[in-house]
Amino acid sequence: MQILPPSATRDARWLVAARTLRSLGDGLTSVLLPAFLLALGHSELEVGVLSTAALIGSAALTLAVGLAAHRLAPRRVLLAASVLLLLTGFGFAVSSAFAVLLLVAFVGTLNPSGGDVSVFLPTEQALLAETVEPSERTALFARYNVCAGLAVALGALTAGLPAWLAARTGADLADAARFAFAGYGLLGIATALCYRRLAGATREPDAVRKREHTAALPRRALGESRGIVLRLTALFSLDSFGGGFAINAILVLWLLQRHALSLEAASVAMSAAALLSALSQLASAPLARRIGLIRTMVFTHLPANAFLIGAAFAPDAGAAVACLLARAALSQMDVPARQAYVMSVVRPEERAAAASVTNVPRSLAAAVSPSLAGAMLGASSFGWPLVAGGALKIVYDLLLLAGFRHRPAREERLEQ
Mean pLDDT for the chain? Predict the structure, then answer.
């Protein structure tokens, strides 16, 4: 069975493989992180603060790399990021002091959200957009995200293994978790091997390739696309700020606190949610062809956010998990559509910068929220973070629809 679209190049396969490996580690650490910190004696607030530091650090590095991407060799950027992944994993494996962990989280690749908010993303997306025909771009992004989502699900499921081993061997949970973080670090070696195989092939039309190869190096990362990129960035900032109240680390912390779920049960729930999120993205491309990219983003996101709010009012753990699973089945269907839309409305040479500027809010604007969510949960076990996050994301959906429903992607205009 062919996983990627027919026009996808060999580079697309290596990029998808690398993203899949990284996502395996993201799923593991996003679920394990709060339990690990609590086992070390740190508070709920400190869980939120460390999550905030990780997101702010990722945002700053991602923005810097994205804005300089038109002057950097993409493969070198990805290889350097793989080294940083290796160092992050081993930093958590050997440290206990909160100050040290906070520093490693800030400068490293740790992802407490379960989604991809790392320095890898803008470079990968810009390269990926060039490895397939424009008509199959949304389908390729969907499969790129599906493979990642399935890996996140597997990683989240394995997050329960340290607790299982600790219970049966008498070892301390924190010590067992250190081996998991070391395994996360080793994924940096695996991703580096994938990136070394990239050939840098492009699937852009001949005229575009000729222009890119003969034109002078652009003076600015964003030129004529600056206006629409900044408008989208403002909206994505709002979405990300709301999403930061419901990242995986916060959801797991809430389930452990509010409903007394075990780490093993929480890892199964988060794994199932990641699996649903991944598989649902397969519907994104056909739905976008039918109703358009913007409407796909909005009409799948609105009910997902309603389920997030509903989870906060659930009377028991079963109902709460059911709401979170329903939300997961819808909440990520907008991702391939959003990625394809951004890549379509900017010039090819501006794609890395556009991906960086529009993706940075997924970590920068979201960075404040986990600390607020941790403070909320420290004061009350009720799911106020879920209510706040869902409400903010609904506002984003309505503003996106109002502002962009009459501005289709370039491929959609050509088909009309």
Answer: 84
